[in-house]
Amino acid sequence: MSHHESSDSHEMPNMHMQQAPGMAMTDALRKHLTRHILSAGPVTQRRLDFEHARPTWLRDMFAEATGVFFYVYPGMAATAAFILQKENSAFGSIFTIGLAYGVGAALGIICCAGTSGGHLNPSITICFAIWQGFPWRKVPYYIFAQIAGAFFAGLILYGQYYQQIEVYRLELEKLGMPEIFAGSPASIFTSYPLGSQTHQGWLVLIEFFVDAFIGFAIWAVLDPSNPFISASIAPFFIGLAYCLMIWGFASVTISTNLARDLGGRLVAMLFFGSEAFTYMSYWWIGIFINIPATIFATCFYELVFRDSLDKIALGHAQHEDGMDGIARHLSQTGLMDPYPEERILRRKEYGSQSSRIS
């Protein structure tokens, strides 16, 4: 045995001795986690029968209402902290409001998408019906549930901030100021334009392109042939789209979501009177512009960016006439031989790259 071999043989036990405490700690942590995390028990037949008996439409409604609640509730809370504590900048800003709405939207999608699809926005529900075959019969109760989710979020938040809101109302009363304006207690729950924003055309322009930006981003993120977005990160990019628009345009009045605006406006009307709807005649912009703007954005995406052959090649869709239809199309367009294999290989390569990135 050489000198080097001898020294190696003496070092090896020391190495094992050095690793032993770490290995022991890992085993201890594993046992600790196993002991304190409840393992799933057997599913009873009674449980399965109960879940089978639940009405699908009711589950969808509760899921959409809950998702919108998760989206709106933290955003309203951040707005309340900002408006009611203006003297102390530590309590909020446009940045924290945007972040609260964006992360709330992501959490709302994560919580309810597995049940209802996680639309969270009436205009998105309508666009799913237009472009993706979502049943039109479901659209009315989806929209009702979404508005209800925002309404209950505002209702609960009003109760939580009741004392601070009342103090602010008394201050406004002493100063002879109204209760509804941009920055008033009512604006915690819905959007109101600034006193200088008297031209409704500009307000429509702002709202339309903000909503179109969000709608286009959502459609791109949800495109199954998009190689850069995986399902696990999609909610956060949708939330980021909301963040960006709030950070950029909240100071000039935006709504971004029919359900958020109408649900919150109903809460404002309940506690601050009918002027919640009539103030500066803004209500119709905040509630309705979202729909044509999102339809415009998704139409633009469908007409220019959508590649249905990619969706079929990746197994996310099929031709209406099945394999015969796709074979006929490929033959007519001269793509029969090289295209499918090359397309599938290329998309799989992009998909694996995006998975590594994400």
Which SSEs are present, and which pair or pack?
Layout lengths: L2 H34 L8 H9 L2 H29 L9 H23 L5 H10 L7 H22 L1 H14 L24 H23 L11 H16 L8 H15 L2 H4 L4 H6 L1 H16 L2 H6 L8 H11 L6 H19 L1
Walk me through the structure.
- Keywords: Membrane, Transmembrane, Transmembrane helix, Transport.
- InterPro entries: Aquaporin-like, MIP, MIP/Aquaporin.
- It is a multi-pass membrane protein.
- With 358 residues, the protein is mostly helical.
- It folds into two domains: 260 residues, Glycerol uptake facilitator protein; 30 residues, no CATH class.
- Helix content is 72%, strand content 0%.
- Helix 6 packs across helix 10.
- The longest helix is centred in the N-terminal third of the chain and has 34 residues.
- The N terminus is likely disordered.
